[in-house]
Design brief:
The protein is α/β, with parallel strands linked by helices and 279 residues long. It is built from 11 helices and 16 strands. It has an 8-stranded mixed sheet, with helices on one face. Strands 7-8-9-12-15-16 form a 6-stranded mixed sheet. Strands 13-14 form a two-stranded antiparallel sheet. The structure holds zinc ion (ZN).
């Protein structure tokens, strides 16, 4: 019975621990200590692997210490292997891999960085625990029995990661890849940026009722966990402007709001990202 545990780390990072029959992997450990502390509360669970989405320090910072403490493997993108500390298993885009007994597909979501990948689990998670900063670990039953998408900084709830190394065309391509995943999937992103992203979304698409409703309900949604993450891809497809931009009707509204021509989707996505950078 796979379980998904969220671990709040540093200021606004989220690390995920996926557990299945006593075997576990951790996604993007910024720091080893909170992961080791979580494992101490889980007797009989062995960490088998670190899984990295990209090379940024707040995603790989705990790699070497976790390897030292547990002897776990480190999984990362083959085309970015030089930047993943301690990598032992370099995986290709499109590969079906198995980590700690769970099958996952490797997706190409380069844009935030040129090596960024996402992982999509085949299995669904029977128990999902949200745990935000200053919150308590809280079971999120609404989110259970769903597969996970470990998206790192490629997609956030209501937004997406900055373009550090990729182009607007890369961002458009990665949004296209993410939009095609199973809508019931959990978007397990690496930061709690939902509130500021939704404020931007409401600014760009002021008459979109779902965005306003999500923003207004956010405090209730976070509840005792103080975490809005993960949430479903289905919800992102309805409220995330970077995914809405893929739809011609919404793209028209976004383009009008940003004063750019609606015909060129890459230009619209690029302008949207630039506008968020300035927001
Ligand atoms: Zn990053």
């Amino acid at each position: 019975m796979p379980e998904l545990l969220q671990i709040p780390v540093w200021r606004d990072n989220y690390v995920y621990l996926a557990i299945h029959e006593g075997r576990a992997f951790v996604v993007d450990p910024s720091d080893a200590e909170p992961v080791l502390a979580a494992l101490q509360t889980l007797p009989g669970v062995a960490l088998e692997a670190v899984v990295n989405t990209h090379h940024h320090p707040d995603h790989v910072g705990g790699n070497l210490k976790l390897v030292e403490a547990t002897g776990c493997a480190v999984v990362g993108a083959a085309h970015d292997r030089e930047r993943i500390p301690g990598i032992t298993r370099a995986v290709d885009i499109g590969a079906r891999i198995e980590v700690a007994g769970l099958a996952m597909d490797v997706l190409d979501v380069r844009a935030h960085t040129r090596g960024h990948v996402a992982y999509r689990t085949e299995a669904t998670f029977d128990r999902v625990i949200r745990h935000g900063h200053d919150g308590v670990a809280t079971r999120a039953q609404r989110l259970e029995d769903r597969p996970a998408l470990f998206v790192g900084d490629s997609l956030f709830l209501g937004g997406c990661g900055r373009l550090f190394e990729g182009s607007a065309a890369d961002l458009h391509a990665s949004m296209q890849v993410l939009s095609e995943q199973r809508p019931e999937s959990l978007v397990c992103c690496a930061h709690e940026y939902t509130a500021s992203n939704l404020r931007f979304a409401a600014d760009v698409l002021p008459s979109h009722p779902s965005i306003r409703a999500r923003l207004d309900g956010l405090e209730r949604e976070r509840g005792a966990s103080r975490s809005s993450v993960p949430d479903t891809l289905e919800r992102e497809l309805e409220t995330n402007p970077f995914l809405l931009a893929l739809d011609p009707e919404h793209r028209g509204s976004i383009a009008a709001s940003l004063d750019v021509p609606p015909g060129d989707i890459v230009a619209v996505v690029g302008a949207l990202r630039s506008a968020k950078d300035r927001f």
